[in-house]
Design brief:
The complex is a heterodimer of chains A (252) and B (332).
Chain A lengths: L3 E12 L2 E12 L3 E5 L6 H8 L9 E9 L2 E2 L5 H7 E4 L11 H5 L1 H5 L6 H14 L3 H4 L12 H14 L4 E5 L7 H14 L4 E6 L2 H7 L2 E6 L2 E7 H6 L4 H7 L5
Parallel strand pairs in A: 3-8, 3-9, 6-7, 7-8
Antiparallel strand pairs in A: 1-2, 1-4, 4-5, 9-10
Chain B lengths: L7 H28 L1 H47 L2 H4 L3 E2 L4 E2 L2 H32 L4 H15 L2 H23 L8 H25 L3 H9 L4 H30 L2 H6 L17 H8 L6 H35 L1
Antiparallel strand pairs in B: 1-2
Helix pairs in contact in B: 2-12, 4-7, 4-9, 5-7, 6-7, 7-9, 8-9, 9-12, 11-12
The chains are: A alpha/beta (252), B mainly alpha (332).
């Protein structure tokens, strides 16, 4: 019996009258990579954005159902607190261009006005950059701007930024879709290393990526959760016909 | 669940149709090019006409600027000969005794402009944030935007009237309560009306710049658990800094040169101002006040030299401002 970090039950989301996520249920297991895959527009990114309550920032957006983080309903918590506990990495690398690499990593603390002692900061920065496998590449230029890094390095910097907050779960929204193949494989390697210490929910439209890095896979189509289960099982003996058709490249 | 997939036959037939269509379009365009060479020549001609027109108007612009500058310098020569460098450092302006020192007016201009700038910055930043970040759409936001832009279009003599009728009594009441000589007119009143006049410039540029801050950066900040205020202070403002500064600089340029409204409420005193409640004169207001009654070559020439100094002061401020903006945006 694996412990769950996140439990989504009968969850629906809509904005300006469009139902984007339709009665979805799934679980995210502790220290595993769970992949959320499906064709564009299937609602996977919206579901992800609901989990750290970014979806509600769009006007006319609404949700129903429940999402429990360690058995607490995140829609009954302060959204600011939810976002501190649930880290997010975006599709396009987005380090803060006005901050140095060092400041980018501890940006979460700076933004929240949490003051830390010098050596505490140094420890967090070094730790987070080591976890995101960027330390060796940037340790000599920590005080330079993060925007001079390559795309893959920038994305790893964003991962370090999210890790620095010590989140309960890390959400990743197609983190490699803006990267070249080499940087992509670098990030994928990183994911398998990271899951020793952190729970990851990965949105991807890349079937092969889901197969390579995830332990569990959820397949969404047109806002519905078609199938959710162990990656091995879902990829070898899918229960639903639509999953099979998606995996064999008939659509998507 | 009704999902229809294209089967392979359908796909093939669509591809075939697309290919045929492409072919047909391709041959049509090539036919048109061959049959109408004169059209191409005509488009070349219009291109070069357009380019020449652009060049001419650009050069014309520079000629006007140079013309203004040369005229001011030539007309200032009698005054420069008479007063020399003491024109800038002299503290007495007394045309009756032929003393022309403009230091007082230089101080008046700089103090009123910078005071106006300081007063206007909080308001223009607030308006910029309101319409650039908090309420980007909606009736009230667009109403506010056009109201702010309308402010820029009000003639400055109207501002001057309003200041005379409303601001001067207000300032006078304040001065009476504070135990200062209650002129009502003076540097503070001029700065207040100037501040109102320059807010539209920095506010509308600031709002455009703030609305250009990439949403993925804002989302990144929010996803780290920051409040909207923290996001604005630590992500939006640093990102938009150089643009906001450029807007403020533009408004400063406007404040330095503003004439009519200032002349009406600054009190027109040629003495060195003691504090911000004292009546004073700016370089622009002294020209407006005395140009019509200036008799004698040196008097007129001195006023023109004041204009020249005013031009140089705003040039220096613009160039330094640009330099600072470029340097800070390079650091980004």
């Amino acid at each position: 019996m694996e412990s769950q970090v996140l439990k989504v039950t009968n969850f629906s989301a809509h904005f300006s009258g469009n139902q984007v996520v339709n009665n979805v249920s799934m679980k995210v297991a502790h220290n595993k990579v769970t992949a959320l895959m499906g064709p564009s527009g299937c609602g996977k990114t919206t579901l992800l954005r609901c989990i750290n309550r970014m979806h509600e920032l769009i006007p006319e957006a609404g949700v129903s159902g429940s999402i429990l983080l360690h058995n607490k309903d995140i829609y009954r918590m302060n959204p600011i607190l939810v976002r501190k506990k649930i880290g997010m990495v975006f599709q396009k690398p987005n380090p803060f261009p006005t901050m140095s690499i060092y400041d980018n990593v501890i940006a979460g603390y700076k933004l929240n006005g949490i003051s830390l002692k010098r050596d505490e900061k140094n420890r967090i920065v070094e730790d987070s950059l080591k976890k995101s496998a960027l330390w060796n590449e940037v340790k000599d230029r920590l005080y330079k701007k993060g925007s001079f890094l390559s795309g893959g390095q920038q994305q790893r910097l964003c991962i370090a930024r999210a890790l620095a907050m010590n989140p309960d779960i890390l959400l990743m929204d197609e983190p490699t879709s803006a990267l070249d193949p080499k940087a992509t494989s670098h990030i994928e390697e990183l994911l398998t290393e990271l899951k020793n210490n952190i729970t990851i929910l990965l949105v991807t439209h890349n079937i092969a990526q889901a197969a390579r890095v995830s332990d569990f896979t959820a397949f969404m189509y047109l806002g519905n959760m078609v199938e959710f289960g162990l990656t091995e099982k879902l990829f070898t003996v899918p229960e639903d016909k639509r999953t099979e058709e998606y995996l064999s490249g008939k659509f998507g | 669940m009704a999902i229809s997939f294209l089967d392979n036959n359908e796909k093939d037939s669509i591809m075939l149709k697309a290919a045929v269509l492409k072919n047909r379009l391709g041959s049509e365009t090539s036919m048109r090019e061959e049959s109408q060479p004169e059209q191409i020549r005509a488009s070349f001609l219009s291109d070069s006409v357009f380019k020449t027109a652009l060049n001419v108007s650009a050069v014309f612009m520079l000629l006007i600027l140079a013309g203004i500058f040369v005229t001011l310098v030539l007309e200032s020569i009698p005054s420069i000969k008479a007063a020399g460098f003491s024109f800038l450092t002299g503290k007495t302006w007394d045309p009756v005794f032929r003393e022309y020192g403009t230091f007082v007016f230089l101080v008046g201009t700089l103090v009123t402009s910078f005071l106006a700038l300081i007063i206007s910055i909080p308001f223009s930043l607030a308006i910029a944030l309101f319409s650039g970040e908090y309420f980007r759409q909606g009736v009230f936001s667009s109403f506010l935007k056009s109201a702010v832009e309308l402010l820029a279009g009000i003639p400055s003599v109207v501002y001057g009237f309003w200041a005379l009728l409303i601001l001067v009594p207000l300032v006078r009441t304040f001065e009476m309560k504070a135990g200062i000589i209650p002129y009502g007119v003076g540097i503070l009143t001029a700065s207040l009306i100037l501040a109102v006049m320059i807010v539209p410039y920095s506010a509308s540029i600031g709002s455009d710049i703030i609305s250009l801050v990439p949403s993925d950066l804002k989302e990144a900040a929010l996803s780290l658990g920051s409040t909207r205020f923290e996001m604005i202070m630590k992500v939006v403002f640093p990102y938009a800094r150089s643009g906001i500064c450029a807007g403020i600089l533009l408004s400063l340029g406007r404040a330095i040169g503003e004439t009519m409204a200032v002349t009406m409420v600054i009190g027109n005193s040629n003495l060195m101002p003691e504090n911000i409640f004292s009546p004073a004169n700016t370089m622009a207001s002294i020209i407006a006040n005395e140009f019509t009654e200036a008799t004698g070559d040196v008097y007129v020439s001195s006023l023109i030299e004041v204009g020249l100094v005013l031009l140089l002061v705003s040039l220096i401020i613009t160039v330094t401002g640009r330099y600072i903006i470029n340097r800070t945006s390079m650091q980004q």
